Amino acid sequence: MSQPIRVVLVDDQRLVRAGLAMIIASQADLAVVGEADDGAAAVQLVARQPCDIVLMDVRMPILDGIAATKAILAATPDGAEGPRVIMLTTFDLDEYLLAAIRAGASGFLLKDGPPEDLLAAIRTVHAGEAVIAPASTRRLIEHVASLAPPPRPDRSRFEGLTDREREVLALMARGLSNSEIGQSLFVSEATVKTHVGHVLAKLGARDRVQAVVAAYEDGLVSPGSD
User: Fold this and answer.
1) How many CA atoms lie within 13 Å of 160's alpha carbon, on the beta-carbon side?
2) What does residue 151 show for φ and ψ, rounded to 5 degrees?
3) pTM over 0.70
4) In 3D, which of 160, 136, 149 has the Cα closest to residue 99?
5) Sign of the torsion formed by the C-alpha atoms of 152, 153, 157 and 158
6) pLDDT category, 133, cuts 50, 70, 90?
7) Which residues contact 140 (CB under 8 A, 6 or more apart)?
8) Strand, helix or coil at 167?
């Protein structure tokens, strides 16, 4: 049997951590390998405890989740496969989420969402994608994108994208999965994965979320567009 996905829980509320731990422990392919009750403790924990996923609360004492995410990802050596961070929030409209994505988080979830969403998010992010598919997440991305400064007229970082890659990015921003993008463009899922990989590489984006936020920030796509 392959090694389970190693998860670190970071939240200043013990009951929240206990609930998350129970959900994760119910799955054979997941394991909680550590817990921290603030961002500073999380940075220290991840430095000594190898893990694959960090479930990070946004608002915490001493060091918030955004600063902790930056520190954890900054400590990952260039070229190394470090942990991926999923932000957790109580609020469905949170002005801190754009900063969280900029810090390198691979997605975000609402704490009061169904357990199956949490489990799916862990597995999806571990597989190298990001949590942007659910409609609620798309609304959150659009909201935080609307809080960003007005789009810059210089879209030079998108000039290297082909027309097809721009189409794929626009569909990613709508929250479509690779299979759904393939159906929309009448191409195979494998072809879509190749296009997504090219988009991320050309934009220098860590994952799909960062690519989508970049597209919103620079006005390549706009909130509410389809």
Assistant:
1) 9
2) -55, 140
3) yes
4) 149
5) positive
6) very low
7) 92, 93, 94, 97, 108
8) helix
Q: Which residues pair with 64 in a beta bridge?
A: none
Contact 43, 68 (CB under 8 A): yes
Residue 170 CB: number of other CB atoms within 10 A?
17
What is the C-alpha separation between 64 and 220, in angstroms, rounded?
31
Looking at per-residue pLDDT, the higher value among 96 and 87 belongs to 87
Neighbours of 45 (CB within 10 A): 19
Question: Quick check: helix, strand or coil at residue 122?
Answer: helix
Question: How many Cβ atoms sit within 10 Å of the Cβ of residue 198?
Answer: 16
Distance (Å, whole) CA 27 – CA 87: 20
Measuring CA to CA, which residue among 180, 102, 205, 89 is closest to residue 140? 89
Q: Which among 59-63, 75-79, 86-90 has the top mean pLDDT?
A: 59-63
Average pLDDT in the chain: 83
Given a contact cutoff of 8 angstroms between Cβ atoms, the answer to whether 90 and 112 are in contact is yes
Residues belonging to the chain: 226
Answer yes or no: are the C-beta atoms of 217 and 148 closer than 8 Å.
yes
